[in-house]
Design a protein that fits this description.
The protein has helices spanning 39-52, 70-78, 94-109, 115-127, 141-155, 193-200, 242-257, 275-284, 352-358, 365-375, 391-399, 410-424, 437-443, 455-458; strands spanning 20-23, 58-60, 66-68, 83-88, 177-180, 183-187, 205-210, 260-270, 287-296, 310-318, 339-341, 381-384, 402-407, 429-430. By secondary structure, the chain is α/β, with parallel strands linked by helices. It is elongated, with a radius of gyration of 28 Å. The termini are far apart.
């Protein structure tokens, strides 16, 4: 039906539409409400009213029966209010009222989003210094993440920029706290409570993603055919017996437990050889096992009988509070299972040798980023006590979250910093001195890595950890990579 532009609308009755403040108990709900309001929606409307004020009055008839605005009334009641602004439409017939109730709800549904314009508006709000939560716009976190990720995917080549190798001179030292944009990186021991105090500064994380050492030697287990060689990790690189490694895992999990909120999800990576030790240690730390995810790589790695093609990611939860769930069975397009298919670093592709040279067990950024998307909201904190080359920091930056990370080895602190600066062009700053990383590099002079030994561990305050002074075997020379 064509619309006429000659329709004569009489606006002279607008004086009858002045808003009036009436008591909520005096209004009556429409007899047959076809539109339902969930508790979640009522809370969102209430948040909107708290943020912006009550901007749109409800519509009632001459008998105080609500025509439009049932959700806003429920939101006001949720907020403890007993009055509501209303406009009275006393000229509609009964049939017109019933028709308008349906039309008011249905017509808004017929519109479509301009996705490009929507992306621009959401990005603007995300970049702005808001004094309210982004969730007030009514979009779920998963929806916002998908809108932003859609544009980033179209612009991305799906390859990270070249990654830095470990340099001969180390800049960072134990006790350093670095500020990487909104992220923090502390050089310290994940088994020492003082490290968490320095890193967290009385804040609590909403999620953990971490890849602790597996107590498996790097040599002959990780390095492939010998093209790329790495020195062993400073600790838990095959030198511990089962009881010692269980104590190692239990200690860091207990400390992490104290620095995450109730209901937070912990993703802890582990090699199959020590999966039972991690599960047992998690239980002893008071964590609930809620799933076991598998990183399914596209190629097999090393192995004696069967080549290893997967790694385990144990999913724990702290406490009984309902966890954040952005998957929601694929409601907003996040169709996730507990089998995660991502290419491993042994895949024949551009950049794989850079990644292998950077760190022997590096995880794909996409894997970590998706795990973050699953269970956190934007700007929440991700804790990583074993940061390695900084993958969790990169993933948090790309997903709009904050990462508070820790790493024992100063050399890998440097790698993580350079990797972050190379990818995002943001200058990293030393929290105590205010020096940039490049300025600190000029200020400090470090001996070449090849001359350092693991007794650097015992010579620092890192040695005063929850498991006591490191055994003498930690003073073995570092295998140069």
């Amino acid at each position: 039906m064509a619309l006429s532009n000659t329709l004569n609308i009489d606006f002279s009755n607008s004086r009858n539409y002045d808003a009036e403040l009436i008591t909520i108990k005096d209004v009556r709900a429409f007899d047959n409400q076809a539109r339902k309001h969930s508790p979640e929606q009522i809370k969102k409307i209430a948040t909107s009213i708290e943020t912006f004020g009550f901007l749109i009055p409800i519509l009632i008839d001459e008998d105080n029966k609500v025509i439009c605005g049932h959700g806003r009334i429920k939101a006001l009641e949720f907020l403890g209010q007993d009055k509501v602004w209303a406009i009275r439409a006393n000229h509609l017939s009964e049939d017109q009222k019933r028709a308008y109730v349906l039309a008011d709800n249905r017509l808004a549904e017929l519109g479509e989003w301009d996705e490009d314009a929507l992306e621009i508006e959401i990005k603007h709000l995300l970049d702005a210094d808001l004094d309210f939560e982004i969730g007030v716009i009514g979009f779920e976190t998963a929806e916002i993440d998908l809108i932003i990720a859609r544009s980033e995917t179209s612009e991305s080549t799906n390859q990270d920029p070249p990654v830095p190798e470990i340099e001969e001179h180390v800049v960072s030292e134990t006790g350093d706290l670095w500020q990487l944009g909104t992220h923090r990186l502390y050089c310290g021991d994940a088994l020492a409570s003082t490290s968490y105090a320095a890193l967290m500064q009385n804040e609590q994380a909403h999620m953990v993603f971490t890849d602790p050492p597996y107590n498996v030697p790097i040599h002959n287990h990780v390095c492939g055919k010998g093209d790329i060689k790495h020195r062993e990790f400073i600790m838990a690189s095959g030198e511990m017996n089962d009881d010692e490694f269980c104590e190692f895992l239990r200690t860091f999990l207990i400390l992490v437990y104290e620095h995450v909120i109730d209901g937070s999800v912990l993703n802890v990576c582990m090699d199959w050889r020590h999966l039972e030790h991690l599960l047992s240690s998690g239980r002893q730390a008071g964590l609930e096992l809620i799933n076991l995810c598998i990183w399914n790589k596209d190629n097999g790695g090393m192995g004696s009988l069967y080549r290893s093609k997967h790694e385990d990611v144990v999913i724990f939860r702290k406490g009984s509070r309902t966890r954040t769930n952005n998957v929601m069975l694929g409601k907003f397009g996040r169709n996730r299972t507990n089998v995660w298919d991502y290419a491993g670093i042994n895949t024949m592709r551009a950049g794989r040798l850079d990644e292998l040279a950077m760190h022997p067990t590096v995880k794909p950024v996409a894997l970590v980023k998706d795990a973050i998307f699953d269970v956190t909201h934007r700007d929440e904190i991700i804790l990583d006590p074993f940061c390695g080359s900084g993958t969790t920091i990169l993933s948090a930056e790309q997903s709009g979250r904050r990462c508070y990370a820790m790493e024992l080895d100063p050399a890998y602190i440097d790698v993580a910093i350079r990797r972050y600066q190379d990818q995002f062009g943001i200058e990293v700053v030393h929290a105590e001195t205010g020096m940039t990383f490049s300025q600190m590099q000029q200020h400090r002079h470090r001996p070449p890595i090849r001359n350092r030994t693991r007794d650097v561990y015992a010579a620092t305050d890192v040695g005063a950890s929850a498991i006591g002074t490191p055994p003498a075997r930690f003073a073995a020379p570092i295998v140069e990579g």
